[in-house]
């Protein structure tokens, strides 16, 4: 019964994420603020795909964490991560208002979860958030614009969750993000759907890498 309840919550979270993403994407396009022109959220079948994926992630969270509050806390990461990923895929934007709003919700939930679940550390949460933000900030400077400020801000959010778990999780999340992103870029080059000057959204890979580190 517990698994079914969280799967349904995940389905609702996924549906909410794609509805919100469509609204935000339409507003960004109207304002001429976008840097990409993908249309995944407009594609037929995108809604059930997002709902199924989010439901599956919630189910995996129930297998990873024994305490319901921890599942809900990391469910916030899944829902916001899906919302941000959809926006980034279609527009190459990671709105700071969403990132900051999620941080404002996530931090008290992570602190509260640490009192009931000994898997987490509040000190690790703060160190992780600052540490991952700092690493990505350095990479932003070194990449000369290939990595954007939105990715850096997102790193602060993701680092909170990874640091809450362990410092090792931060390293795993970053390595997984760049590995999966590298495979995707290589596939585009091999299939000639992109060249060395092509830019693609990296936020979704940071989120994927984080989820890999959380669920491993």
Structural class comes to: mainly alpha
Taking all Cα atoms into account, the compactness measure Rg is: 17 Å
Overall average residue pLDDT: 93
Q: How many domains, as an integer? A: 1
Quaternary organization: single chain
Distance between the termini: 24 Å
Could you give a short description of this structure?
The protein is an all-alpha fold and 216 residues long.
Structure description:
The chain is mostly helical and 216 residues long. The protein has one domain. It contains eight helices and no strands. The protein has helices spanning 2-30, 46-64, 68-91, 96-116, 122-143, 149-165, 167-190, 203-215. It is globular, with a radius of gyration of 17 Å. The model has no long low-confidence stretch (mean pLDDT 93).
Features:
216 residues, 78% helix
SSE map:
Elements: H1 2-30, H2 46-64, H3 68-91, H4 96-116, H5 122-143, H6 149-165, H7 167-190, H8 203-215
Helix pairs in contact: 1-2, 1-3, 2-3, 3-4, 3-8, 4-6, 5-6, 6-7, 6-8, 7-8
